Amino acid sequence: MKALMPYVKMMFVEKKDIFLSIFAGFMAGITAVGLFSASGYLISQAALTPPIATLMVIVAIVKLLGITSAISRYGERYFSHQATFTLLSNIRLRVYEKLEPVSSKILHHYRSGDLLSRIVGDVDSLQNLLLRVVYPPVVMVSVFLATIAFTSIFSVGTAVLLFIGLLATLLIIPTAFYVGHRAMNHHIRETRGNLSSTFTEYVYGFRELTIHQATDERQEQVLADIRTYEKQKQQSQAIHMWSDATVHFFSLFVSVAVLAYAGLQVVDGNLAGILLAMLLMISLTVFEQVTPMALLPYHLQESAHSAKRLEAITAEPMEQPEHVDYNGQTAPDLSLQHVTFTFDGEQRPALQDVSFYVKPGSKTAIIGASGSGKSTIAHLILKSFPYSKGSITVNGTELKHIDEKKWWKTINMSLQSNHFFVGTLEENLRTANENASVEEMARALQQVELSHLQLGDRVDEKGANLSGGEKQRLAIARLLLRRHATLWILDEPTSSLDALTEERMLQLLFNQAKDATVLFISHRLTGLEDMDQILVVDQGKIIETGTYEQLMEQNGYFRRMKELERELFAIEKST
């Protein structure tokens, strides 16, 4: 329940709408009780043939109560839903504001389907917090207490029976079913998250699964998750039915008890017979208010578990150090000293005691085999991952003290996997520079040899309608539109290109970044002759450092990799 408290506090921000909805709900409930009790009294009076004026007064009261009940019910719906929609909007805003600072971290902890299930499904579930968890008990208690107070004027015993019914339907029965439903709801949430993740992976990986003829196995896994989810939902629905049946049975039982008790009171002469129908109608009508209580255990547990799942991904980030001013107008220097980094949940460090220095305006290549830790270095410099051991400084300032947004504004980066949005080529290019002119974007496409494409051409999700080479060249075109970047981080920017095109693209990039500090990350060894320094990374450690000539003079890892690459090129050329 602790996880629900921030959302309960948010709910009471809309005090006006909540107060009006509760007031309207109370008026709707109490006038409904009054309407039926007056109707019962009218029937009893009519049987005694009173003066017509008496009946006219009672009929007028019945009509007035009916109109008031209808108007109040409309007001209840209007104000409660208005407060709920505002609450839902505020919750989405809160989730986004808390998610944004830790987004780079949680993306490595949660599968995309599960994350989507949380920020969509769990947020939507919290709309029930007001409508079905907080609001019904408040209205029910207020209507019951007012009814009990009114009933006690005529029959204290009947009022006691109504109070017992209030306790049972408000506390005892809902609490019993809440305990029974708690474990079930937890399993349903987890299963739904797993189903979302499995189905998302199945859809995104359908082409590869089809090629490798593995669709049947993955499809069966999706179907198994669906069957598990449906089974758990059926069990949950069974609990709902039992809860609803129990509440209604006890309500009817109390009404029968009221009728029996009032009847005995009439027989004993302690109660006027004309009031018997009125007391029965009061009992039957007031217990209509308890209908929402049957589902309260489910919605309470659902809201609590949704809040827990949201808090898990929007946990407060680590205390942020004080930021210093950074303008990044000139090419920066970079210094890493004894940096060690381990991904959460992993035992083996991704980087171990990494130290190197990059001069401002210099070109540094970081090379090594796949999985050696090259990209991890880039992500640490980009502040995608928080480092705890060692030091990374920019122009002598610790990177932790530089605001991420100001830092990213000075960086041009091309990662191994560049994201492309559904839309046009122009819209994707504008993600790099929203102020770029049409002529500048057309020239960038021409420079990266994509003149056959038009700015209005459509780009599918993740660039599915583009080849691997086209996607990399489009990513390079975005880099060309950010001319004022003072730090370029190029992580395998040409890995999908042929050798000749790669040479032209690298030359284009280095010419564009001639005045900037450049980190060039690659597992290939071509185009490194003009680098100011080369860092050779293996198993998270820097094992060699130097210029191209210095490393070739050494009989080390780099020279052996270069000789092996030459042999492979020679074999490939001969065939």
Automatic annotation (TrEMBL):
SMART domains: AAA. Residues 19-291 form the ABC transmembrane type-1 domain. One of its GO terms (cellular component) is plasma membrane. Keywords: ATP-binding, Membrane, Nucleotide-binding, Transmembrane, Transmembrane helix. One of its GO terms (biological process) is cell redox homeostasis. It is a multi-pass membrane protein. The chain crosses the membrane at residues 20-43, 49-71, 133-154, 160-179, 241-264. It is found in: Cell membrane. SUPFAM superfamilies: ABC transporter transmembrane region, P-loop containing nucleoside triphosphate hydrolases. The keyword Nucleotide-binding applies. Residues 334-564 form the ABC transporter domain. This is ABC transporter required for expression of cytochrome bd (ATP-binding protein). The lineage of its organism: Bacteria, Bacillati, Bacillota, Bacilli, Bacillales.
